[in-house]
Design brief:
Length: 140
């Protein structure tokens, strides 16, 4: 009888040890999968921003028109994701500001028409708290 109770105690301790190991492995797997997910998000942010960043600094009007064309296609594709719709501000040669908010494709088209292909513009990008480009300022 005494041997049977010792065997039950040993079996219970082995079972508890196995459960603790399984719990530890589960926690470890969840932690590593969360890191992979956050890296994926960082990669997505980087890819999104790179499409705008290649137009940063001083650019010819023709390149700025390409930027606005990309912003128009971006607005069409991401109309349901406001965080991916940067505000575009053009300060033209008359020192007037034309602003396109979010997915306002008509206003983006107006900005595109206002840009003179042979002029030089300065393009500045601002980033939001999410890390995405949230404002594009184009200065004549």
């Amino acid at each position: 009888m005494e041997n049977a109770s010792k065997a039950l105690i040993i079996a219970a301790s082995v079972l508890i040890t196995i459960m603790l190991i399984a719990f530890g492995v589960t926690i470890f797997n969840n932690a590593t999968s969360n890191d992979a997910t956050s890296n994926l998000d960082t990669a997505e942010i980087s890819m999104f921003n790179q499409k705008f960043e290649r137009y940063a600094d001083e650019k010819m009007g023709s390149e700025v028109k390409s930027l606005i064309s990309f912003a128009i296609s971006n607005a069409s594709e991401n109309k349901d994701e406001p965080s991916k719709l940067p505000k575009v501000i053009l300060n033209n040669e008359n020192n007037e500001n034309i602003t396109a908010e979010g997915s306002n494709i008509d206003k983006l088209g107006e900005i595109r028409k206002s840009i003179v292909s042979t002029h030089t513009y300065t393009v500045n990008l601002d980033y939001g708290s999410s890390g995405l480009v949230n404002k594009i300022t184009i200065q004549y």
